[in-house]
Fold this protein.
Amino acid sequence: MTKPLEGIKIIDFTHVQAGPACTQLLAWFGADVIKVERPGSGDVTRNQLRDIPDADALYFTMLNSNKKSLTLDTKKPEGKEVLEKLIRESDVLVENFGPGALDRMGFSWERLNELNPKMIVASVKGFSDGHHYDDLKVYENVAQCAGGAASTTGFWDGPPTISAAALGDSNTGMHLAIGILTALLGRDKTGKGQKVAVSMQDSVLNLCRVKLRDQQRLERVGYLEEYPQYPHGEFGDVVPRGGNAGGGGQPGWVLKCKGWETDSNAYIYFTIQGHAWEPICKALGKPEWIDDPAYKTAEARQPHIFEIFKTIEAWLADKTKFEAVDILRKFDIPCAPVLTMKELANDPSLRASGTIVEVPHKKRGSYLTVGSPIKFSDMKPEVTASPLLGEHTDEVLASLGYSKQEIFNLREVKAV
Ligand code: CAO
């Protein structure tokens, strides 16, 4: 069957993670994504953290599936000419170069819009245009610090902490993908392309929305009742780090299960949902708590919430994380085992749904990657291998009308 984005041609001028995550998603859904890479070296992630000598690193293969690779030196006049031809034929250009790099290359938004007024130009930068830090180059962890995630992650007695989730990179790429699809729909109505810009700081902050909520609550009332600091600890004038507390109104914590002494992931996350107090007491064999005024309401429980968690841990002591969840699920309690990457990689449900997929690759053999987390009733996105450097150079140049001799000449001057 035809895929929804078939016929959409994308110049993928992205590298590292934020941009590639965006264009990979669009490629899964059918777009023709042509990754433009510097001859000889390509995306820096091809070489980063290699586990097999001379084969593209997993960092690259897991972010660039379903794409074509065109090598092109866009600083050479011959390379610029090829790029201009490509621009005239494309629907979208996506880039995440450092600030000003595209302008310095001679492809400002004005120039791109002149070459192809229907083209959508989508950019990721660390900070938004006009921001007082908009000249900074930014990587993942920098964005997590600038976007409010680091100051609110970790334990109160430890330093600001980075999340393992790519809040700055892949998250920004997902925001950009939404922006591109919106601009494509807009173009159907107006016939015009537009510039779509997403900053990593903004994208992180968007995911830290509830922490901005908490800042305002703190300023109004001086405390945050769902944080571990309440009611016995101190609050300052900024949202503190809350450890493993729940971000909403439901208290929760990571709790030890059988084997935690030797297995650093023998834990579950347990949520005390307000209206589920009765089933929780039943599941834990504590029926006397149901109507006890010291336990009955969330307000009454909060001052001794850690004692409650300790009691739950005592109940968990002879149960593995999987056994515990199997019991608790029957009582409708929101919980999950803390899963390792090894467990996720081998999870039969994730394999069956296409969330974890094994992809054959010309040089590496097969590798695991995360497939589309978005599921459709009429389409199952298929993940194909990432391209070798320049694998599609001849094909793309031929499609632009270059003859074999002209391609040879471009190679001679090292423009491709
Ligand atoms: N041919 C010729 N030149 C090319 C080229 C090509 N095909 N592709 C890229 N270049 C050039 C650029 O034009 C730029 O040249 P100048 O700086 O001389 O103008 C140069 O390569 C380097 O670009 P860069 O600034 O993007 O690269 P960097 O490694 O120094 O920085 C990064 C990397 C990620 C910090 C920076 O790109 C950035 O801040 N991007 C925006 C934010 C972002 O997306 N960060 C997330 C990355 S994922 O963690």
